[in-house]
Amino acid sequence: MDDRGIVLLLGARFAEQQYRDAMPEGWLREAIVTDDPLEALRELWREH
């Protein structure tokens, strides 16, 4: 019940509106476009 996780979708296309609209409701809380996905993931974990 208390488990949490992250779904990481890699690829710039997931920041495009047509892909974001196709996601299940509640899936996409924020889109991060970066050249360093590992550092972005580390920062995300630090924030949460």
Please give a handful of descriptors for the protein shown.
flat; 2 helices; mainly alpha; single chain; 48 residues
Question: Beta-sheet strand percentage?
Answer: under 5%
Overall number of domains: 1
Low-confidence stretches: none
How many beta-strand runs? Answer: 0
Give the end-to-end Cα distance, rounded to a whole number of Å.
17 Å
Mean pLDDT across all residues, rounded?
Answer: 83
Topology pattern, helix = H, strand = E: HH
- Biggest beta sheet attributes: none
Characterization of the model:
- This protein has one domain.
- It has two helices and no strands.
- It has helices at 17-22, 37-47.
- It is flat and about 30 Å long.
- The mean pLDDT is 83.
Layout of helices and strands, plus pairs?
Elements: H1 17-22, H2 37-47
Put the structure in a nutshell.
The protein is mainly alpha-helical and 48 residues long. It contains two helices and no strands.
